[in-house]
Amino acid sequence: MALLDILVVLVVATLVGGLGIYAVVRLLVDDAIEPIDGLVLALVGAAAWGAVSLFLASTPVLGPVLALLVWVVLVEVRYPCGWPAASALGFVVWLPSVGLLYVLGTFGVVSFAAVGVPVVYFGG
Question: Which ranges does the record mark as transmembrane (predicted)?
Answer without folding.
Answer: 6-29, 36-55, 91-121
